[in-house]
Amino acid sequence: MTMQKNFSDVMPVLARHNGEWTGDYIYFSSQGEILDRHKSHLICRITGGEKYPYYQQNTYTWNDGRAEQFELHATCKQARIWFDTDRIQGSCWEIDSKTLMLNWIRKDIPKSYFQAMPVLEFGIGLKTMFWLNEFASVKLRS
Fold first, then answer.
1. Of 22, 15, 13, the residue nearest 43 (C-alpha)
2. Was domain 3-141 assigned CATH 3.10.50.40?
3. More confident residue, 91 or 48
4. 53-88 burial by CB neighbour count: b if 16+ within 10 A, else e?
5. 99/84 Cα distance (integer angstroms)
6. Which residue(s) pair with 99 in the sheet?
7. Is the pTM of this model over 0.70?
8. Under a CB-based contact definition with an 8 Å cutoff, are residues 84 and 100 in contact?
9. Which long-range contacts (CB under 8 A, 24 or more apart) does 29-37 make?
10. Beta pairing, strands 119-121 & 136-141
């Protein structure tokens, strides 16, 4: 049985997350002011690899010309994927038939802790994500 088949069986929501997602990150202060906004392009792949069966490439671009790109490779253990890269450390798991839960720290931001809850809506190609930290961020991607 291939790892891609295992992902479909063990993590069916993550399997539906496979593909490309574009949209906006919008960071808000606790007073509702926009702190930052940038475009996002995520490539999410179930690779079938034994060591790193999940791969994600994040590309962010700002209107002023700035850009940032990084890659995440994840292991899979007990129906959960685990990231441990130069940039982040964390994990992702499923909480119901259309919702993923993620938590991670940014290694370059002391005392950081992030949570995200992507919800994949059936049949309409929409993913909504909420981030919780010292700010609130809402991202709509299709």
1. 22
2. no
3. 91
4. bbebebebeeeeeeeeeeebbbbbeeebbebeeebb
5. 22
6. 96, 119
7. yes
8. no
9. 29/135, 30/134, 30/135, 30/136, 35/135, 37/62
10. unpaired
